[in-house]
């Protein structure tokens, strides 16, 4: 693990530009979200958190929520901090929020993203289906995965 203290905290509107930069770095072959898209997600009341290392945003995650279910909209960590457990911490934060609300969680993940699939399986997700050519413009397929509500 590289140095610096990692803090998970609510994502702020002023983080939107940095989120868009990270999107372009992490998802270059597909349609990365814009700064405006991140602002809209925050304005729509979705649950978004950032991972900050000594005050610098190095990752983010978002959970869309309704009265009946939730869905992981995105998780991203800058390349030079991947493998440090930041993605795991972000996912656990989203799952804790879904559990607090008693909601099942759904997501899509590229079929070739073995690291993310392994992470999701380790956190109680199961494969539900396949969406062919889900990611654009690359045309990459996605698995649909789900995790039941924790109503304990």
From TrEMBL:
Substrates-to-products reaction catalysed: N-terminal L-alanyl-[ribosomal protein bS18] + acetyl-CoA = N-terminal N(alpha)-acetyl-L-alanyl-[ribosomal protein bS18] + CoA + H(+)
Chief location: cytoplasm
Subcellular localization: Cytoplasm
Keyword Cytoplasm appears in the UniProt entry: yes
EC number: 2.3.1.266
Domain of life, source organism: Bacteria
GO cellular component: cytoplasm
Keyword Metal-binding tagged: no
Annotated ranges, domain N-acetyltransferase: 6-150
SUPFAM superfamilies: Acyl-CoA N-acyltransferases (Nat)
Keywords: Cytoplasm, Transferase
Annotated GO MF terms: protein-N-terminal-alanine acetyltransferase activity
Function per UniProt: Acetylates the N-terminal alanine of ribosomal protein bS18.
Family: Belongs to the acetyltransferase family. RimI subfamily.
NCBIfam families named in the record: rimI
Protein name per the record: [Ribosomal protein bS18]-alanine N-acetyltransferase
